[in-house]
């Protein structure tokens, strides 16, 4: 069987989770009950050639990214799947002119939450064969 290694970057920390396709499929079935889910790559693969496997990998990557992009609040089952224990709440948008000196240092710090995953540097062209 094939295992997909998922790179998770959260608050500057990186970790990896390894998941089989069946685990993605089980996640998809659970998520459908709570959110509108994107298409998941087909469960059935006719042949296990590298090109087909790469298409499946890209499809699963797109699936995860779409769930993240389209949901302000991610369901707990999704976070558990990615082995993310705690998601800090995003600071509420503040109206202009509310940046006064009395604001606590903590609440004025922005938290950055990267959403897209690149397995290679997107700005470097692949080497020609």
Automatic annotation (TrEMBL):
This is Sorting nexin-24. GO terms for molecular function: phosphatidylinositol phosphate binding. Signal peptide: none annotated. It comes from Buceros rhinoceros silvestris. Its main location: membrane. It is found in: Cytoplasmic vesicle membrane. It is a peripheral membrane protein. Keywords: Cytoplasmic vesicle, Lipid-binding, Membrane, Protein transport, Transport. GO terms for cellular component: cytoplasmic vesicle membrane. Residues 89-111 are annotated as: Disordered. Pfam families: PX (PF00787).
């Amino acid at each position: 069987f094939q295992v997909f290694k998922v790179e998770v970057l959260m608050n500057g920390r990186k970790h990896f989770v390894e998941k089989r396709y069946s685990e993605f499929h089980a996640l998809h079935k659970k998520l459908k009950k709570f959110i509108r889910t994107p298409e998941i790559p087909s469960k059935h693969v006719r042949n296990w050639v590298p090109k087909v496997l790469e298409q499946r990998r890209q499809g699963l990557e797109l699936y995860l990214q779409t769930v993240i992009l389209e949901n302000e609040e991610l369901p707990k089952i999704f976070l558990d799947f990615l082995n993310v224990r705690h998601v800090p709440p995003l600071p509420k948008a503040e109206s202009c002119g509310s940046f006064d000196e009395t604001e606590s240092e903590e609440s004025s710090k922005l938290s950055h939450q990267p959403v897209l995953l690149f397995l290679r540097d997107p700005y470097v062209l692949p080497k020609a064969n």
